[in-house]
UniProtKB/TrEMBL annotation:
It holds the Pfam family DUF5360. The lineage of its organism: Bacteria, Bacillati, Bacillota, Bacilli, Bacillales. It comes from Bacillus salipaludis. InterPro entries: Uncharacterised_YvaD. Keywords: Membrane, Transmembrane, Transmembrane helix. This is DUF5360 family protein. The chain crosses the membrane at residues 7-27, 47-66, 73-97, 103-124.
Length: 134
């Protein structure tokens, strides 16, 4: 959890900041993805809000339970990591289908795919140990 907590903080706070700046429209136009203001893409982008908020909530809950030395942290960490992976994957697949290769947006979403993979195995091992212990 030593390294994972920093990833949770960066990712979960990052999601909250992203949605705040999206809400108040402060992303500079040169950084918006292609067709950003098209109504269908606006709806597509906002469709990620519940998922991203759930990622942040489960990540923060994991940190909270870890600080209380409660093993629930592991379950919330697993949920957060899997949902984070799904969020990044959905965006990347969408842009692949559209043949839209804007590296600014790709890098953030590739991060969301890759970082959970680094920690999933150790979280699953820890959960397995906890389930097997009396």
């Amino acid at each position: 959890m030593k390294m994972l907590k920093y990833f949770f903080i960066i990712t979960d706070v990052g999601f909250l900041i992203y949605w705040l700046i999206t809400l108040v429209h402060v992303i500079p136009k040169q950084y918006l993805f292609k067709d950003y203001n098209h109504p269908i893409l606006v709806a597509w982008n906002w469709s990620f809000l519940p998922l991203d908020l759930l990622i942040s909530i489960t990540g923060f809950l994991s940190l909270y339970f870890f600080s209380k030395q409660n093993m629930l942290w592991c379950s919330f960490a697993l949920i957060s990591l899997v949902l984070t992976f799904c969020s990044g994957l959905q965006a990347i697949v969408f842009w692949i289908i559209r043949l839209d290769f804007d590296w600014t947006w790709w890098l953030f979403n590739l991060y969301l795919i890759i970082y959970p993979c680094v920690f999933l195995r150790s979280i699953l091992k820890r959960l397995n140990r906890e389930l097997r212990s009396p």
